[in-house]
Design brief:
With about 425 residues, the chain is mainly alpha-helical. It contains 21 helices and no strands. Helix 15 packs parallel to helix 18. The protein is globular and about 70 Å long.
């Protein structure tokens, strides 16, 4: 084992151990340890700085600017009461029959609908502001909304226009439509995992709250005990809703830069809706953003060192070398089974680097390359929903008002079981080469 591999393993292990101590925050560990690792490998400070700056700038372009302006916009839009009005309209047909079981199923249905765009951040931006007041109303753990949505996104990654299909087809040099067809068969195997999530989440909620319906506090609010919000703007509901639809159309239909879309949204809210009251709401969004920003920068530093030093290649080669000869035939199944836990701490691109190896190994046993890789397209998307190394996850946590560190800890357990159920279903249905 060479120095690069030893340092890579040491860095990952230190990051894994960091949450178990309370003295130094995780985000600071994720900044200091990678920098120290790069110095141990002999990289000059100037080169390290250039690499970190490049990755941090890329993170800001892909998620940072979007997150900042989206937080301000949705903080203000939520205060207007628009989403509460929509929630009341959704609940009305159900009457007293609405409960957390229906809400969990509704979450998956809406997630599948929004995920038709195959754009992760856009799906979060459309879905979570709508679900947030519903989950608050029923006292349902908001982390569940994220987990269910991520599972639905994994299911929809078979779509030919999804980034996963496009990127993998380039790596493998295959036809995107054929790869999409192979992935669609795997996507069906996620259904038992979704049912498991519904059952588990409903059981946990009943155990913690003693009911599948409204909690006593929520029932009191629904009966009119909730204090009136002085910032609510019920008379502006339709214009606010129309502006919201226009902004979403700009994201989905016209592919406008997301941060520009939400700058426009912020301008509308500040100038026309809250010309005298915007200060405290901007400050509230800014405070949330600062907490998320530190994690984004820490994640960027970690990824920069992991990628630019070649640690991703070293870890990939190590994973391949660990397989005894008699297990080689099942390498794809074993790697897929541990992908959720692995992606929690190492970039999912490590698995992408292994695709050519898996295709070559599969060919030795008469397995097609697409059959070997298609499950990774679906299941790796599931795995990226429980890692701090994926910037959109911080956007989702902020939209749902949940602590990101606690969410990752919860999600990795539920998604690991979901992943194993999906693999078992794929084997039983003959979709997974065996």
């Amino acid at each position: 084992m060479n120095l690069l591999t030893v340092v890579a393993l040491a860095m990952v292990l230190l990051i894994v151990a960091a949450p178990f101590q309370k003295r130094v925050p995780l985000w600071l560990v994720m900044m200091l340890v990678p920098i120290a690792a790069a110095l141990v490998l002999g990289y000059p400070v100037a080169d390290i700085s250039a690499s970190l700056t490049k990755t941090m700038n890329s993170t800001m372009v892909s998620a940072g600017y979007l997150m900042f302006f989206a937080l301000i916009y949705f903080t203000m839009l939520t205060e207007t009461g628009m989403f509460e009005t929509i929630v009341n309209a959704v609940l009305k047909p159900f009457g007293g029959r609405m409960n957390v079981i229906i809400l969990l199923v509704l979450t998956t249905a809406l997630s599948l609908l929004c995920a038709v765009t195959a754009q992760i951040s856009i799906t979060y931006l459309i879905l979570f502001p709508l679900l947030l007041p519903l989950y608050k109303r029923f006292g349902l753990n908001r982390e569940y909304a994220f987990i269910l949505c991520q599972t639905a996104l994994a299911v929809m990654m078979w779509l030919p226009w999804s980034p996963a299909i496009v990127n993998v087809s380039v790596v493998l040099g295959c036809d995107a439509m054929e790869l999409s067809a192979a992935a669609s068969r795997v996507a069906v195997c996620m259904a038992p995992g979704i049912v498991f999530q519904w059952v588990y989440m409903a059981w946990r909620h009943k155990k913690e709250n003693g009911t599948w319906g409204l909690t006593p506090a929520a029932a009191g609010e629904q009966a009119g005990e909730q204090k009136e919000n002085p910032l609510a703007r019920p008379k502006l509901f339709w214009i606010n809703f129309l502006v919201f639809l226009v902004l979403m159309a700009g994201l989905i239909g016209f592919s406008l830069p997301p941060y520009l879309v939400f700058i426009a949204g912020c301008a509308y809210m500040i100038i026309f809706v809250y010309p005298n009251d915007f200060g405290p709401m901007v400050a509230k969004a800014g405070k949330t953003y600062v907490n998320l920003f530190t994690f984004m920068m820490a994640m960027s530093i970690y990824l920069a060192v992991f990628t630019d030093t070649g640690m991703n290649n070293a870890i990939g080669e190590l994973l391949t070398s660990l397989f005894p000869g008699f297990l080689t035939r099942y390498m794809h199944i074993i790697l897929l089974a541990v992908c959720v836990v692995c992606v929690r701490y190492v970039p999912n691109r490590v698995f992408t680097l292994l695709y050519p190896v898996l295709v070559a190994i599969g060919a030795q046993f008469g397995f097609s390359g697409m059959a070997m890789i298609a499950p990774f397209i679906i299941n790796l998307t599931l795995a990226t929903g429980s890692t701090p190394l994926n910037p959109p996850n911080f956007l989702a946590c902020s939209l749902l008002e949940v602590d990101s560190t606690h969410y990752f800890s919860t999600a990795v357990k539920i998604q690991s079981i979901t992943n194993l159920i999906a693999i078992a279903a794929a084997i039983v249905m003959g979709v997974m080469p065996l």
